[in-house]
Amino acid sequence: MNPPLQINITQVQQEIDALALISENPPPVVTRVLFSAADLKARAQVKSLFRQAGLTVRDDGAGNIFARWPGKNGALPPVATGSHIDAIPNAGRYDGVVGVLGALEAIRALQRAGFEPARALELIVFAAEEPTRFGIGCLGSRLLAGALSLEQAAALRDGEGKSLNELRGAAGLGGHDLHQVRLAPQCYSAFVELHIEQGPLLERENLPIGIVESIAAPSTLRLQLTGVGGHAGGMLMPDRHDALLAGAEIALAVEQATLTSGSPDTVGTTGVFRIEPGAVNSVPCRAWLETDLRDTCLETRDAALKRIESSVAETCRRRGVEFKLERLNADPPAICDPRLVETIAGVCGELGLPFKRMVSRAYHDTLFMAQVCPATMIFIPCRGGFSHRPDVYSSPDQIQRGVEVLALALARLAANPQGKSFMRSDAAASGGSPFSGQSMCQ
Ligand code: GLV
Ligand code: MN
Ligand code: MN
Fold first, then answer.
1. Closest ligand 1 atom to Cα of 95
2. Which domains does the chain possess?
3. Threshold 0.85, pTM exceeds
């Protein structure tokens, strides 16, 4: 008989809720910006949980955390899983955290079931998946994959002009060499990230699991506009070079470039727009904008980027406003490993869980892990598809199914071929899945 795999979802939920209290803003808001006091406290909290599970914990110089369950054969490349615990301003408790604390529970469930991995299992907490501090997302996984050079990393500055080196030093990581962060190719045999969908499809189609086949290509533009300030009463309209109005036109040009790209998958957002001096009776003399532009198709994304860049130049010339435009990143999409996708599809079959093969429109650390090893993601539904807001929600049941699929996938990927197989003990094992009767692949 197969040993049962029991997920302690009550404990996972308690751990998620406790982590949510470590925030720069009061509940239900979760804000944890890289290396803020909240981020440092949250890191300490998850490391303590990892140690309680008997995992060996280490940091790298970029602030990535690695927690290892050794395998019987130290010569085999480990299987990796994980996600992030940083959170954008005004976020909720599930983004990234489900993939960290869910992975921890997957490991604990395998330990309780007596599973002995042939390959080590490594749980990674990636530093700064969110772009809040330095303007680019996936800082930790970018550095792991070598997709950001050390020179580029050294040039990064946050909104207060602080460098990565300064901040990681203050976070106690100064003794860890940034040169050693980059992973060797194929250093992991596989990487699987569990995450909330951050879109509405699984909920709409009443599906418990998504398996990610590709991740859309993200890019970010940062724009600084310098116009001419002056008195809101005294400065005549023909004499104006208003930085805000130039920025407003550019934000609309971003919308136009996405709407006319020819692809329904092009999405553009100007999520940062600050002005100076910010007084009602003063013409704005400076503006800062940050624009996020993505597409599943690289060519369409790049064509839209070029159109936006031309609009910036044209608008600023016409309005007599100076500009400095930077492409902070323009990454290719990721194609997930088809064999890993099939492995997870097989696990869903074993559990009687219908699933959907999907594109991830949000980016994730898997975007960069896919550059170093076979990688994919497991999605679970979230209410209304909402994310990046405090009311994001996935139910304990939804999380439990994701953790179960992850645990069994990790067991298959890390197994000794002669080892025992693992099944959960309840509904699926007895053929009573609440989803039985639905097609296995939508
Ligand atoms: C990740 O948080 C993203 O913005 O896709
Ligand atoms: Mn996010
Ligand atoms: Mn995330």
1. 2
2. 9-216+333-414 (3.40.630.10), 218-330 (3.30.70.360)
3. yes
